[in-house]
Specification:
- This protein has about 350 residues and is of the alpha/beta class.
- It has one domain: 3-Layer(aba) Sandwich (UDP-N-acetylmuramoyl-L-alanine:D-glutamate ligase).
- The protein has eleven helices and 13 strands.
- The strands form two sheets. It has a nine-stranded mixed sheet, with helices on both faces. A four-stranded mixed sheet has the order 3-2-6-7.
- A hairpin with a 6-residue loop joins strand 2 and strand 3.
- It is globular.
- It comes from Symplocastrum torsivum CPER-KK1.
- One of its GO terms (molecular function) is heptose 7-phosphate kinase activity.
- Keywords: Kinase, Transferase.
Length: about 350
């Protein structure tokens, strides 16, 4: 779709897009995902240690935020939805912190199970700064297990998911490859008629889910070839639809925007709304999924849902680290976007 045609369609759809945003709070969503706690430890570099050639940092602040699939949960809650979460945490302080963050945000955590054999996935980033200088990340420490949950835990989580299906409008599968989304869990999640899949790899495991949202590298990995021009992009969209048997595929392409494909053969391209003020794309895919899912819950077309997902992502990439946005911020950004288009006289 030429950009001028997209602009005309966006302007014509403005009232409906604002109306969809107003109804996000009515949506009920279950997220099944790999739950991660992101930790950020920051301090001032004092000197080089005498024990080893390493920096000594005097600790100043610790910040803990939801990461991985937990970031998708948090994004949905911050957009006003009624959110339930199903997943696993370890029997550790990190798991307790993650549950507390969710509960403060009004998220239903009853389907989070404690797996004493596996730690809560935790990514600890240690950053330091000298006096009057910028803070820079020095090292990251990851805590996780490469072992799958025991079969009993898998079946128990699948049962928890099935008990929630009649109470939600959509299910989001947020698969970061940390072992929570095993075959029984995926089967349970796919029992819902509206399932949105955001998986880093092995998309075929989610065959028959309604909507998939791979980014460009994930799409290339799934189809087995580089997506480097309009022809290979179209072929990839068609091949992904065949691989997944999905109704719709949304490929997010960074500063190239997004491309939509559906089983009717329709193909749409949405330009990036923010190409310049991009500071950190970490977690932006979770934001896209959140806004897209809530839009679909409220009856949006796939194009409308992708536009609002794109809009939400254009906001969070302006911030460092995993971030969320709000309805008010999205309304302001949409109004600004419309004014920019009108100012160009398109």
């Amino acid at each position: 779709m030429p950009e001028s045609s997209f602009t005309n369609q966006l302007v014509a759809s403005a009232e409906r897009l604002f109306g969809l945003l107003d109804r996000f709070s009515q949506a009920r969503v279950l997220v099944v995902g790999d739950l991660t706690l992101d930790e950020f430890l920051t301090g001032q570099v004092e000197r080089i240690s005498r024990e080893a050639p390493v920096l000594i940092i005097r600790h100043e602040t610790t910040r803990q935020t939801p990461g991985g699939g937990a970031n998708a949960v948090y994004n949905l809650a911050k957009l006003g939805a009624k959110v339930k979460v199903a997943g696993l945490v370890g029997k550790d302080s990190q798991g307790e912190v993650l549950r507390q963050i969710f509960e403060v945000a009004g998220i239903d955590t009853r389907a989070i199970l404690i797996d004493p054999d596996r730690p809560t996935v935790t990514k600890t980033r240690i950053a330091g700064h000298a006096r009057q200088s910028v803070t820079q990340q020095i090292v990251r420490v990851d805590r996780k297990s490469d072992d799958l949950p025991d079969s009993d835990v898998q079946l128990q989580l699948a049962d928890e998911i099935r008990q929630q299906l009649d109470t939600v409008d959509a299910v989001v599968c947020s698969d970061y490859g940390d072992g929570v989304l095993t075959a029984p869990v995926i089967e349970a999640a796919l029992s819902h008629p509206l399932t949105v899949v955001d998986a880093q790899k092995n998309l075929g495991r989610y065959r028959t889910a309604g909507v998939f949202t791979p980014n460009l590298p994930e799409a290339e990995q799934a189809v087995g070839y580089a997506i480097k021009n309009p022809q290979t992009l179209t072929k990839a969209g068609q091949d992904l639809l065949a691989l997944t048997q999905a109704q719709q595929i949304l490929i997010t392409r960074g500063d190239e925007g997004m491309s939509l494909f559906d089983r009717s053969g329709a193909e749409h391209h949405i330009p990036a709304f923010n190409r310049t003020d991009v500071f950190d794309v970490t977690g932006a895919g979770d934001t896209v999924v959140a806004a897209l899912t809530l839009s679909l819950c409220m009856g949006a077309s796939f194009w409308e849902a992708a536009v609002l997902g794109n809009l939400a992502a254009s906001i969070v990439v302006r911030q460092f680290g995993t971030a969320t946005t709000s309805i008010d911020e999205m309304k302001t950004a949409l109004q600004t976007l419309l004014e920019e288009f009108e100012g160009k006289g398109e």
